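Margin note: ligand = N-carbamoyl-L-aspartate.
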Amino acid sequence: MAGLLGIEGLERSEIEAILNRARDFQPFENHTYKRLDVLKGKLIVNLFFEASTRTRTSFEIAAKRLGADAVSITAAGSSVSKGESLVDTLNTLAAMHPDAIVMRHAASGAPHFLARHLATPIINAGDGTHEHPTQALLDARTILDQRPSLEGLRVAIIGDIAHSRVARSNIHLLSKFGVDLVLCGPASLAPPELARIAPGVRITYDMREAIRDADVIMMLRVQLERQHEAFFPGGEYFQFYGLRLEHLDLARPDVLVMHPGPINRGREISSEVADSQKSVILSQVENGVAVRMAVLERILGGHGKTAD
Ligand code: NCD
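Resulting structure:
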């Protein structure tokens, strides 16, 4: 693997290999983490032009657990805030000879631009509204921790689909594995053309219909930072598209409630649901480290070695 820019271009077998390897890196209960040295001497630069808590820290933890050196650069604290262009920032970074660059940027396609200009492997940690591949991988790992396979599961993705890179990467991944996918949100945030991202994807504007018999409900944050006009009156959003306890009765009894975070309690999800037994939101965060370890190992070599 030369890098990871998106799920769309990945083979199913490659996704399976990452998900299987991630299992080796999941923490055992009451076990302290052993630092491995499969990536010893490697330098990973995390370049974040957009806010991040989970993704940035878990990439950092993943790199360190594999024995690599990791440095994080955030736009606010870098020369980007002094007006340096993306190309100049990248050339400067490249001169430090990192072995991989993990990048998050508000512009869709920014990591692809980088990949065309640098020989260094680039890992996309979220580009605009386009893709967030490691999020979809950790989501799949989280589902597979609870279900034997993805095939035939009914997954509802609900919220601001139009602006969500998480939704796009998940749609690509889940449709490669034969999931019955239904997208749901207000018409302005779930336009009909989204159904064309992958075959077999349906759209509904009725939250109850989306949730009925669902095995998995993925909630999305409303991406206010990507909306330049009012897509939906804020106060009414929760009433129509907020996930509440009463909805869960419509789904399968063992439904998994997911959310990539950060969650806005009382906006897209109620506290009762976010904190319920059905919520696997913190397992998603936990799997973020394991999946990113598997991705870094695969890209930077060293795979084939055992985790212990
Ligand atoms: C997501 C993102 O940045 O796309 N967050 C994350 O990586 N966990 C989702 C979001 O910000 O709503």
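Strands lie at 43-48, 69-74, 100-105, 122-127, 154-158, 180-184, 202-204, 216-219, 256-258.
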